[in-house]
Amino acid sequence: MKQLFQIVTFLLILLVGEKAFSQNVKAELVIHDGTQSVQDTHLVGVRFLMDPNWHIYWHFPGDSGLPTRINWKLPPGATSGPLLWPVPEKFIQKGSPPTFGYDQEVVLLSEIMIPPSLREGDLVVEVKWLACDLKLCVPGKTSLNLPIEELRSAKNSKRSDLTFWIDQVPTPLINAPFTQEISLKKENSSITIKADLSWKEKVGNIEWYPVLGDKLIVSSENISEKEGKTELRMTLNLIGNLSSNLNSATDFPTQLNSVIVFTTVSGKRRGVDFPILLK
Amino acid sequence: MSKKYGILRFVLLCAATLGICISSCIASPSMDGMTSAPTFTLSDTNGKSVSFADYVGKMVVLEWTNPDCPFVKRHYKSGTMKRLAEKFAAQGVVWLAVSSTHFHDTDKLSTWANAQALPYPVLVDQDGKVGKQFGALTTPHMFVINKDGKIAYSGAIDNDSGGDLETPVNYVEQALTSLIASKPVETTQTKSYGCSVKYS
């Protein structure tokens, strides 16, 4: 009986180690098929599956919510690249600014480099998220693990084509399908940004996702389109001392990071990193 | 001629004196850069009417809350708000929790307040009018109002949105400590964190 209990416990641990279930969100490890390389680099992702009407958050969630966090713990010698975030969506709650994240499904990717000499050990990833619907938020966390020999196995059932998610990661500005003209107007604790984008191809549904951090809020935003051009107009305010006389040259961050998201004529959502120098 | 100049000098002197008096006597809300807190009246979970005007001359802390929000739950588990409310009550600070969640009624909030044994009232703002007047965005979202009715601090309870820090900086505690000591509040505004306020 004791042996049976131990076997069942062992099997449960194996099962939970690869996937995690918590209310409204499932998380599992996936490996992009076709990333075998001499350098032993693998594109590994955490796939989140959300119940209908529930979402988790982008690395900048907006004015509420909590970023999804992925923390790789690797054997000595193995390294991971930066986390790759597919383009997010906006979630609107009445009376509140939009938040940014993902519903239904998302895969957050990382490049994992394993030295060829490393034959044993486990890749472990600590995952934390906040899942919300219109009424409730529920935190979740789990630890997922993947033995190195399984990572290298071509027949691993976790292998699948993750091209859809790879293509959703924003491209650098240098590869953007637009050219841009940006001007700034600074006034005390606010900056008004005018960005005109001239598109090289026909696109639609243009959205802007600013990474505001703790210091900035958007007080106004307008996106309009006219004859192949997009006009972004936004005013940023600095959060700081209410009664201080702010010197905009020294108090604003050097750069505002953001993502421009658009839909191609074939209906695919794509993104471009769009940094804006504020000084 | 000298008589005319004398009268002119007298008139100019009076005008200057009057101007100095006017500029120093009339209170200007914008001179210290702080906003006056909106006045309001709400009922608490016992049905008692609570009016902000009742607390003229006192320091008041407004805490936007939602019992179902994990950020609020975390702080109530660790006793953050209760500890501060009890600590500063001795110095006359009034603590008021406010719920602007449109689907939380008095019964729901009363059950929660009783279970938490709160030493302060929970005000029911189901239509969200007061929350929107203050610009409450999250739960929690904190407002510290000084004795002059001005918002001396607004924003997050502390600098630890993820609940990771061993010793977070508590902005409300800092603001109250400064106000009590008649010193300027160093951090008057931060970005609040938490769940979005569930307005109707």
Mean pLDDT of chain A: 88
The helical percent of chain A reads 10-25%
How many distinct beta strands of chain B? Answer: 9
Q: Rg of chain B, please?
A: 22 Å
Helix and strand string of chain A, N-terminal first?
A: HEEEEEEEEEEEHEHEEEEEHEEE
Portion of residues in beta strands of chain B equals 15-25%
Shape of chain A: globular
Describe this structure in words.
- The complex is a heterodimer of chains A (279) and B (200).
- With 279 residues, chain A is mostly beta strands.
- Chain A is 11% helix and 52% strand.
- In chain A, the strands form five sheets. In chain A, strands 1, 2, 3, 6, 9 and 12 form a six-stranded mixed beta sheet that branches.
- The longest helix of chain A is centred in the N-terminal third of the chain and has 17 residues, at 2-18.
- Chain A is globular.
- Chain B has helices spanning 2-25, 70-78, 80-89, 106-116, 129-134, 171-180, and strands at residues 41-44, 49-51, 60-64, 94-99, 122-124, 138-139, 141-145, 151-155, 195-196.
- In chain B, strand 4, helix 4 (106-116) and strand 5 form a beta-alpha-beta unit.
- The radius of gyration of chain B is 22 Å and the shape is globular.
